[in-house]
Amino acid sequence: MSIMNNLFSSTNGAIIPQPGPSGWVSMTQGIAACKVAISGVWSYRALSGRIACRNHNPARWAGLWNVRVFGALFPLVLCVLLAPSLSAASNTNAITARFEENLPFGVSAWSQSERVRKGIGKESRFAPYEKGTAADLANDALVERGGEAENDPRETSFWQAYDDKGWYFYIESKEPLVKDLLNRLLDPLSPARKESYEVFFAPGLNDVPYYQIFINPYLDQAEFYDWAMPHADYRSLKKDTRVESLPLADGVGTFVFVPWHLLYERVPLDGGDWRFNLIRWMPFAKAGGVTWGGRVHETGQFGRVHFEKPTKAQREAIERRLLQYAWFKFLATAGQVRKFVGWEDAHVGDPEFYETVLAPEIARLKAIGEKWGDPDQWTSAQVKEGLVHLKDFMEFDYKTSALRTKYLEDRLFSRK
Predict the structure, then answer these.
(1) In degrees rounded to 5, what are phi and psi of residue 224?
(2) What is the residue-wise DSSP string for 175-223?
(3) CB of 234 within 8 A of CB of 149?
(4) Residue 116 in contact with residue 110, Cβ under 8 Å?
(5) Tell me: the pLDDT tens digits for 209-240?
């Protein structure tokens, strides 16, 4: 058993990599693991050979033979186990999102745009969702999915782009039975009410929490599932993300807009890749489900959105808008903090904290922004200077809580 433990944990001083979010290691890690395992096998073979030459005890020969057999088979078993990951990694879907001026906003504008009418930038590489896996989703208490496929899936396509305001994607799904489907929406038990999309994305590839949006396009409803607790570095999409769905002549269109201020630490100012997946469920036509990048919550198999690097001017436009939003948010939050809490009231507030800690911090941050003048006239140098204070402006409510916590801790420990 000790030999097996050593082989699985460390071989020749190299640690076999751990699985990623999907439960599989990456292709690069898999290849490295196979090399490490094979290297370890030869080490064990050499070791067993040297021991065997010095001691011809049959019992020891049998034990060494087991070691050598296991060592010979282990690389093959490991590579077989990694095969699905290696195959999936080489077939990952990807779409490019480019910075564009005057992007359409809403379903009507996107559906009538030249890019959609001519199929420019269209992404339609969906695969049927695995039947066995879809059946397992009955245990997911969050949502209800469609049943198994009896008919061919309908075409599903989407487009993506971004500008200084945020990230846009538009989904267009064909449905020949659209009129009948719309008529059946009145029936609360109709499968038409379960027609849906699941959108997953992570704003990066590593060490970032992901988001899920569950959309019922024919009911024009969206639910947001945040897979982390809200804090200064993670905000819910629910408040400011725009989702709109409208029926079309041959299906349905859905527009999604995610403003950059919700993800301001992760904006791809230097370009880069995000994880993304879109799954469509079609229970009304008994057409099953289709997926663009793996299974539900299987982040390691999601597709990729490649954000094309913005130009210097485009980057500055994004940063300027983020700073303007942060400045106005700070002013609003600071006003609410002053008025709502009632710090000046000695019974329900804390005049000393307000006068010695909070008020000076509000004044300091206000002075920084006010010296720049009209936000519409901020220079490039002022924007660059202001980005240093972006977090304090954006998260002044959390800043207030942190100041309050430190103030109380200092008072508590100073009395002891």
Answers:
(1) -115, 130
(2) -TTHHHHHHGGGSTT-GGGG-EEEEEEESSSSS---EEEEEETTTTEEE
(3) no
(4) yes
(5) 899 999 999 999 999 998 888 888 899 999 89
